[in-house]
Amino acid sequence: MKQVTVKTSKTYEVWVGNGLLDSAGERIRALSSAQRVAVVSDDTVAALYAGRLLDSLHRAGFDDCSLFTFPHGEASKTLATAAKLYEFFAGHQITRGDWIIALGGGVVGDVTGFAASTFLRGVRYVQIPTTLLAQVDSSVGGKTAVDLECGKNLVGTFYQPSLVLCDIQLLDTLPREIFCDGAAEVIKYGAIRDRELFEMTASPDYRKHLEEIIHRCVSIKRDIVQNDEFDTGERMLLNFGHTLAHAIETQSGYTIPHGRAVAIGMVAITKAAAAAGIVPQGIAEELERACWMFDLPTSTDFDPSGLAQICLGDKKRNQNQINVILPEQIGRAVIHPMPVEAFQKFICEGCR
Ligand SMILES: NC(=O)c1ccc[n+]([C@@H]2O[C@H](COP(=O)([O-])OP(=O)(O)OC[C@H]3O[C@@H](n4cnc5c(N)ncnc54)[C@H](O)[C@@H]3O)[C@@H](O)[C@H]2O)c1
Ligand SMILES: O=C(O)C(=O)C[C@@H](O)[C@H](O)[C@H](O)COP(=O)(O)O
Ligand SMILES: [Zn+2]
C-alpha cells in the first residue's frame, strides 16, 4: 500500500493498493460525520462494483446511501448529466455536510466532481477511480469538467476531492483497450518528468509494477499541482499532447477515447516540433515505440487545418498566443508559447 498526501486548497490523501474498495466505508467514516452519501457511477462499473462499495459504507454506519448511474462513455460527460445529478442530490436531500462518491473512470470522476463542486456551491467528494487512466491522472488534482459539442472540457471547475482510493484490483476487469488508454497518460508522465518511469512503462512485466507506476504518476501530479493548482504555469506540462488530443476527440464527435487521442497528440506535436527544429530528432520515435507497445494509435487522418482551428478554442490559448508543451528530451518538457498564426502553420506543416 502506498500513500501520497496532496496539499492544495484542500489537503487530502491518495491511497494506492489492493483491497481499498472494501475498506472505503471505514476510511470515509474516519474523515466524515455525513448522514447521507450519494454514490455516482456508470452502468458498467456499477454492475461490477457498486454493491461492494455500498456494503462497505453500510458496515461503516452510513445507513442512508443512494446510487445514481448513467450510461458509460464520454457521451455522458455533459451538462445534461450534471443537471440529472443535481436533481438526484436534491431529491435525496444531500446537504453541505454530506458526501458524494465518484466510482468509475475519468468520465464519472470529471462529471461527478463538477456536479459536487457546483451543487450547493460545494459538497465534499471522494474519488474511487476504476480505470488505469483515472488512477494515474484524473482522480487527483481537482480538475472537473463537462464537454460541449464544440470542445472538450470547456466547462469546469477546480475542486479538489477529499480522498482518493486507487484500488489496483479493480483494474483486473478492464478490457485491454481501456487499460491501454491509461498507458497513454503514463507515457505522458514519463515523457514530461521521469525517464525511469518511461522505461518501466515499456517493460514487458508492466502489470507487476502497477502499484509503483501509479504511485509515481500520482507523486509527479502532486508535485506539479501543489506548485500550480490553477493551471497558470507549471501545471500546463500535464497537457503534453492534449491540445491536439482534445481537437481530435471533438472532431470525432467524442468517439475516439481520450487516451488514444493523447497518444496521437503527443507523437504528432513532437514530430511537428522536430520538423520545425524546436526539439531534437528521435524523441517522437521513442514516444511512438512506447505507444505501439499498448496498441495506441500515433497518427490521424483528420485534416490538420481543421484540427488547428479547434485547438484555438482550447484552454491553452491566451488571446493571440497558445502554449505548446514540448519534450526537450524524454523526462523533461517545457512550455513553448507560440503566436496563433505560427501555431496554425506549425500544425498544418508538421502534422501531415
Ligand atoms: N480531470 C483530469 O485531470 C483528467 C485527466 C485525464 C483524463 N480526464 C478525463 O477522463 C476521461 C477518460 O477517462 P477513462 O479513460 O477512465 O474513460 P471512462 O470513464 O469512459 O471509462 C472507460 C470505460 O471503462 C469502463 N470501466 C471503468 N472501470 C472499469 C473496470 N474497472 N472494469 C471494467 N470496465 C470499466 C467504463 O464503464 C467505460 O466504458 C476523459 O473524459 C478525460 O477528459 C480527466
Ligand atoms: O490535471 C491536469 O492539469 C491535466 O492537464 C491532466 C490531463 O491529463 C487531463 O486530460 C485534463 O483534463 C486536461 O485538462 P484541460 O484543462 O486541458 O481540459
Ligand atoms: Zn489527459
Automatic annotation (TrEMBL):
InterPro entries: Dehydroquinate_synthase, DHQ_synth_AroB, DHQ_synth_fam, DHQS/DOIS_N, DHQS_C. It is found in: Cytoplasm. Transmembrane segments: none annotated. Binds 1 divalent metal cation per subunit. Can use either Co(2+) or Zn(2+). Residues 182-316 form the 3-dehydroquinate synthase C-terminal domain. Zn(2+) binds at residues 185, 242, 258. It catalyses: 7-phospho-2-dehydro-3-deoxy-D-arabino-heptonate = 3-dehydroquinate + phosphate. GO terms for molecular function: 3-dehydroquinate synthase activity; metal ion binding; nucleotide binding. GO terms for biological process: amino acid biosynthetic process; aromatic amino acid family biosynthetic process; chorismate biosynthetic process. Its main location: cytoplasm. The keyword tRNA-binding does not apply. CDD domains: DHQS. Residues 69-178 form the 3-dehydroquinate synthase N-terminal domain. Catalyzes the conversion of 3-deoxy-D-arabino-heptulosonate 7-phosphate (DAHP) to dehydroquinate (DHQ). Belongs to the sugar phosphate cyclases superfamily. Dehydroquinate synthase family. This is 3-dehydroquinate synthase. It comes from Ligaoa zhengdingensis.
